[in-house]
Amino acid sequence: MPLELLLILVVGGIAAVTLVLHLLGLSDVPALDAAQAKAAWDREYPADPAIHCTPTPNARAALIRTQNGQRGLVWRFGADTVAHPLSQYRITETPTGLTVRFRDYATPSVHVPLPAQVRAAWKQELEPAG
Amino acid sequence: MTDLSYPDVVQLAVPFFIAAIAIELAWIVIKGRGGRYETRDAVTSLIMGAGNVASGLVLGFVAYGFFMALWTLTPLDLGTGWWALLLCFVLDDLRYYWVHRFGHRIRWVWASHVNHHSSQHYNLTTALRQTWTGTFTFMMVVRAPLILLGFHPAMVLFCGGLNLIYQFWIHTEAIGKMPKWFEAVMNTPSHHRVHHGRNPRYLDSNYAGVFIVWDKLFGTFVPELDEEKPDFGLVHNIGSFNPIRVAFHEWVGIFRDVTQRGISMRDRLLYAVAPPGWSHDGSRGTSEEIQADHLRRHPEDRGTPGFKG
């Protein structure tokens, strides 16, 4: 197959699939409630289950406290979830919320959208201990 | 015989891949079952697929050069007959089984293969979420016996392409189970869903490419249980759709682990070649440790499929 034709097929195919998926509403991010956040955490860390989950006001992420006293964060990742312990990280405030940056190349950061009135409280909750 | 050539079947299959994805998506949308699609996940998978083809164009000469060098060494030539092709296909599938098994049991090889398991979805786009770094695993050496036995390198690569195309259609939730005789011999959507499951029961099982008999022969077969749906993805899922991070994250992980301070040379080596999840201080878990941990919490699962003893 000529390289030009292969390139057109690949680029055109990816663009077409992207457009169709988006138009079908498959880019929508579902809400994350406390029960879903707990399930998402326990799914990845079954040996240290979540005992307390606090979803953000917009229900895109949740702060987790675990049985062993660990803290973690669960957030929506497309239609799915990612769970990450709060270790080796730093927080920066942005105009729309907080960004948590991890020392993890596979999960470098997550932006947690937060209304201004709760941002300070969440920052305090998320701040590294000590 | 040095100038044998076969078509690049993977490139020729690209229109079929796109059409099949469209059909699967239409089925899921119309029927409301049979799998899930999410835009960014699917696009990442497709870009990984395109990158795989590109890396083959750029780096394919390394493996091909190695195979041609072997071809000049071997006194054997099995020719181009249909029986040679058939035998080559079966033996190359055996080769695939072992490379795939190494890919899950040796971190250096897992670093290349992990991206294929990094989606939490399981649909036809997941099939195309392929490695960009396969050349650097040096797993081409596992094909050396085929060349030395007298199978022409072009034939071996042609069979490898057919193998890859076969595996495309099994990446779907839209097909339940195939007829019993087929499930007994061939790799199927059901068997391969198990392979993509991150459930402790399903870890490190069903490595087959085309023939599931290899798993049955080598003791790695686990059936899909109706009562335990595979949970797709990695033990700890990654939080990035960036194809560069998807392609290289485990390599970066190896680099960071190997170059950390205060560990022995043995530990550094093991961070590269021990099974994924190995750590010098036991802070992570290998598949065996995850399964043992599961059995401590669920002793009733002991002796059931996927849990030995």
From TrEMBL, chain A:
This is Uncharacterized protein. The chain crosses the membrane at residues 6-26. It comes from the Bacteria. It comes from Aliishimia ponticola. Keywords: Membrane, Transmembrane, Transmembrane helix.
UniProtKB/TrEMBL annotation, chain B:
Its main location: membrane. Keywords: Lipid metabolism, Membrane, Oxidoreductase, Transmembrane, Transmembrane helix. It is a multi-pass membrane protein. The chain crosses the membrane at residues 12-30, 42-67, 79-98, 146-169. InterPro entries: Fatty_acid_hydroxylase, Sterol_desaturase/TMEM195. Residues 86-220 form the Fatty acid hydroxylase domain. GO terms for biological process: lipid biosynthetic process; membrane lipid metabolic process. The keyword Lipid metabolism applies. It comes from Aliishimia ponticola. The keyword Membrane applies. It comes from the Bacteria. One of its GO terms (molecular function) is glyceryl-ether monooxygenase activity. This is Sterol desaturase family protein. It is found in: Endomembrane system. GO terms for cellular component: endomembrane system; membrane. It holds the Pfam family FA_hydroxylase.
